[in-house]
Amino acid sequence: MSSSDAPDSPSTVGSRYRALLDIGRTLAGTLSLPDVYEAVYQETASVLEAPGFFISQYDPHTDQARVVFYVDQGEVRHDVDIQYLGADSEVLREASPVLITDRLDERGLAEVGDAAAETTRSAISAPMSYKGRLLGTVSAQSYRPDAYAQDDLDLLQGIADIAGVAIDNALHIRELDERRREAEMVEEIGRAVASSLDPSEVLGKVVEAVAEVLAVDGAAVWLREQPEDEQARPSARVAASRGEITLPAGLVWRLSEELAERIVRDRSPVVVENVESSPLIPDVIRDFVGPGSGVGVPLVVGGEVAGFLSAAKRETNHFTGADVTVLSRLAGQAAVALENARLHADLQALSLTDALTGLPNRRHLEIHLRKEVAAARRGRSLVVVIFDLDGFKKYNDTLGHLAGDEILRSFAQVLSQENRAMNMVARYGGDEFVSVLSDTHLDGARRYARRVATALQRSDRLVEHGVSVSVGLAEFDQSTMKTAEDVLQAADDHMYRQKAAQNGPAGSRLASN
After folding, report:
1. DSSP label at 351?
2. Pairing mode, if any, of strands 469-475 and 432-438?
3. How many angstroms separate the CA atoms of 489 and 185, rounded?
4. What is d(CA 119, CA 52) in angstroms, rounded to the nearest whole number?
5. Residues 128, 249 share a domain
6. Half-sphere exposure of 66 toward its Cβ, with a 13 Å CA cutoff?
7. Are 271 and 147 members of one domain?
8. CATH at 208
9. Which of 64, 60, 110 shows the shortest CA–CA distance to 85?
10. Is residue 249 included in any domain, yes or no?
């Protein structure tokens, strides 16, 4: 019998309208996708014959449809993996409902049932849309021919219209919930990564974070290796890898020109939809990943591209723009943690404090100044001030080294007292000291130098010996300076030009008078 002959089937416009109202009320209170699918099926089965039933979701960008809910012989099946092209489906291709009285295979409609046993014969199928977007299809099917009429198709289309709204709402809620959980995980992982000061441990935590947050089959950190020939293409080496797709540590990938340009020069993410066919992926990597897709984002440490962070999945066309955004955030956290870890390693490897004055020593200054120069390249102002104790050798020669050491300690104390917490004062070597003034221009540096001169006048030990200093200042200029050594050299050159201009060979002085 057809559904219109069934006792519970609506036979009038009024009864169909009431049925749709009931379905609308049910779906309006259903927020999770699995519950929406189940509710759509139950409500459909209550008004239409539906021993076979499925719901598919459709991605118009890839023209891929995937069955997300499936019923066979009235039993919900969870063990199905059905995908098909939208172009092969009349419902999706035409975005209009379809009534089939028999022989589904001739109309391009997915059939419910085991091909070796009984399959459905007749069906009605309707597109689900919301705000002009085609979301998928709803299909009710019967194991006998001529089970449905046009009224049944009209009713299913009404159900599909309501289901489209409910599914869109559930998708939106799921996305918001995923973004919330993802943000919480990223924050938690960021704290864990930042808490480590061992570079190898940091990298291990980074790839574990990628695998967990993105739910991928493999993740890796690649560190860039610049060849001796600067014109040659750069290579990248596996520093850490986790997941089912684990790459051996030390594996080297010589980047193609296109990949090097996109990752290193443009600092852009790269998505590979099909690893097996992509010209960007060499055989040495393809052999490990196999069929699937991948994504990589640059890892920028200290203002330079130090490598890239990658993730792989054993299915093609997997990664979305949202995945790229998450991976980029993780790469940013990883870069900060890695920079901190490397700096800590430097601090542990070397003594960074001058034993005589208690100030940072030259090595510490160089590390700090490199970081400040990197910030200056991004637009923050920076001035370096060099202080040179005039004629210091005579103090050692006439007063002895102990007195000379006391003068150095006294001047270091003056500089420390006039220094702001965000700046650094260091002993550069011998009788030279350097102040690194962040967020400062030349006018502010000159005022700082005058404060030092005033403080020098208040130091009994320095005044007693008539100590004076020469000063050189240099503000970082991107057009002429590239490195920390460049700005130091500019300050040193300025100091000696001042000496030559004001006092001839004897040098200029910022004296206590």
Report:
1. -
2. unpaired
3. 46
4. 9
5. no
6. 7
7. no
8. 3.30.450.40
9. 64
10. yes
Indicate the SS3 state at residue 112: coil
Q: What is the DSSP letter of 66?
A: E
CB 216 within 8 A of CB 309: no
Is the Cβ–Cβ distance between 509 and 390 less than 8 Å?
yes
The reply to whether 170 and 222 lie within a common domain is no
Q: Rounded CA gap, 330 and 48, in Å? A: 50
301 Cβ contact list (under 8 Å, min separation 6): 335, 338, 339, 342
In this prediction the pTM is: 0.43
Of 218, 414, 176, nearest to 309 (Cα)?
218
- pLDDT tens digits, 386-441: 999 888 888 878 888 888 889 999 999 999 999 887 899 999 988 999 999 999 99
In this prediction, what percent of the chain has a pLDDT beyond 90? 34
> Quick check: is 355 in a domain?
no
Residue 335 lies in a domain: yes
Angle formed at CA 427 by CA 423 and CA 430, multiple of 5 degrees: 160
Do 34 and 165 fall within a single domain? yes
Whether residue 325 sits in one domain with residue 229:
yes
Radius of gyration of the chain (CA): 36
- Domain hosting 466: range is 362-506
- Which of 292, 319, 346 is the last residue before a domain boundary? 346
Active site residue 431: yes
Out of 72, 323, 354, 431, pick the active-site residue: 431
Residue 34: which of 52, 17, 13, 55 has the closest Cα? Answer: 55
d(CA 34, CA 18): 25
Q: Alpha helix locations (H) across 302-441? A: 321-349, 362-377, 392-399, 401-418
Residues 162, 55: one domain?
A: yes
Q: With contact defined as beta carbons under 8 Å apart, do 138 and 126 qualify? A: yes
DSSP bridge pairs for 294: 272, 312
54-58 mean pLDDT? 92
